[in-house]
Specification:
Elements lengths: L9 H4 L2 E4 L14 E9 L6 E5 L10 E2 L2 E3 L6 H13 L2 E2 L2 E10 L4 E9 L2 E2 L10 E4 L13 H11 L9
Parallel strand pairs: 2-8
Antiparallel strand pairs: 1-7, 2-5, 3-4, 3-10, 6-9, 7-8
The structure holds 8-OXO-guanosine-5'-triphosphate (8GT).
8-OXO-guanosine-5'-triphosphate (8GT) binds next to strand 2, strand 5 and strand 8.
Family: Belongs to the Nudix hydrolase family.
Pfam families: NUDIX
GO molecular function: 8-oxo-7,8-dihydrodeoxyguanosine triphosphate pyrophosphatase activity; 8-oxo-7,8-dihydroguanosine triphosphate pyrophosphatase activity; 8-oxo-dGDP phosphatase activity; 8-oxo-GDP phosphatase activity; metal ion binding
Length: 169
């Protein structure tokens, strides 16, 4: 859990979050096109949630996030999530329960993160891209966390009546 924090630029620090909670924002909301992303919040029987580290070679390599990825043409959020989690972490998910939707405006991309809670899955976890995995609870111990992950920790804090810092750093 002691990853060397990657370099973060001033532009990255200014990454802007908008809580949308709606799938109605047009696909060219604002001045830049939006990339749709399906993100899985796996919650186990002990109410822990799964974080994975971003693999080497991707933007924000080494940052901790909830696993997921970009929608391919014609896919629904649930279909993309099922495909991504199978490809990246080796499991087959049961139902994906739509939770929150946020926009993140990064220097490299403007993304709409469609977070879904997942309570059931089959198969063994296998980090197929060399990621690391951690079952976490609040406060999160893995550092650093991706900017787009922080709102999720705040939603968990609200749900769980958790007071205090949700993560380190
Ligand atoms: N998976 C995931 N992506 C997130 C989260 N928060 C967040 O801002 N993002 C952003 O959403 C985008 C997801 O892209 P990705 O690189 O994971 O997707 P992918 O696996 O399809 O990428 P690829 O095209 O490199 O194969 C990235 O810009 C990433 O920074 C999160 O919690 N999980």
């Amino acid at each position: 859990m002691s990853a060397q924090p990657p370099e973060i630029s001033d532009a990255d620090r200014r990454a802007h979050t908008e809580i949308v909670d709606s799938e109605d924002a047009p696909s060219h909301y604002g001045e830049r096109p939006i990339t749709e992303v399906a993100v899985g919040v796996l919650v186990d029987a002990q109410q822990r949630f799964l974080l994975t580290s971003r693999p080497a070679g991707k933007v924000y390599a080494g940052y901790w996030e909830f696993p997921g990825g970009k929608l391919e043409a014609g896919e629904t959020v649930e279909q993309a999530l099922r495909r991504e989690l199978h490809e990246e972490i080796g499991i087959t998910i049961g139902a994906a329960h739509a939770w929150h939707v946020i926009m993140m405006d990064y220097p490299h991309a403007r993304v709409r993160l469609n977070f879904c809670k997942v309570f059931e899955w089959t198969g063994e976890f296998e980090m197929r891209e060399g990621q690391r995995m951690a079952w976490e609870t609040l406060p999160v111990q893995s550092v650093p966390v991706l900017p787009g992950t922080i709102p999720v920790l705040e939603w968990f804090a609200q749900e769980r009546a958790f007071a205090g810092a949700t993560h380190s750093g």
